[in-house]
Write a structure and sequence with these properties.
Elements: H1 3-21, H2 29-37, H3 46-53, H4 56-69, H5 77-89, H6 97-122, H7 127-176, H8 181-191, H9 197-211, H10 216-227, H11 230-245, H12 249-278, H13 280-312
Length: 313
Amino acid sequence: MSPTAIVIMIVLSVVMIAYALMPRRNDDQEAIRRRMTGKRSTEDVKHLREMARDSVAKKMVRKVAPIATKPVMPKNAEELTRLNLKLSNAGFRGENTSNLFLASKTTLAILLTVVALLYTWGSGGNLQHMATWTICLAAVGFMAPNVWLKMAIDRRAEKVRNGLPDSLDLMVITVESGLGLDAAIQRVGDEMKNVHPILSEEFQISALETQMGIPRAEALNNMAGRTGVGEVKSLVSIINQAERFGTSIAHALRNQADALRVKRKQAAEERAQKTTVKLMVPLIMFIFPAIFVVLAGPAALRLISTLGNNSNL
């Protein structure tokens, strides 16, 4: 079997495993029951749906993940806490999320190392060429999950920033209409579910923590830690100070919403101003050469022809 075929088989295997781990859409209950038991029934099929989702690939990942995480396991609890916080900022709060993330680093590094070895062996490269490709691809596979996690955190933080002014406006309306702050937080979490689902989820978690007996200040601080967004942290500080000093919470929330809206507008204007600078690269590399050829090309050809005629004379 050729090295190219081996690489293709490895890639297809990884794609099939990833497809098996992807969350499935909600299937019809009767179809799931027929698939699992071969019978038609009207009983509750919640446990059958869980069995259907718990595929062989997931069981295999659960068994392999502890082994793959040993080389990259954090040395102390503080590093593990920071990793869990980053995963929480990206929206991943599962029980085995940190183990799966660490296992992905080891697995991807090993996979790319095997691909590099097969590629260099199939292309007939020497030992130095093989070592270079192996080290580079192994480093890429090891660092790729970190880059992906950073991008996921930035995307989620941007969505939280965009939805915060609208959520604060709704919270001001609910507070001024007579609801308490806890009820207002819960109402905002329910109403913003379709518009800003990420921020709605955070408000709902804070409301549930408050109902469980956790102090409101601590619940809001937990929300600020889960999001990792500076605007949410400043909002929590403003709410806590307003409660401590007895000032109007509605007035503080309105001012904070206006400030966030102005900040969002300024950020959009800043990105628009950066566009002219970013356009310089494609202009210089692609557009200006074409314009130069169109404008100066005929004149250059005529000049070459004239100089050639004069030299013949």
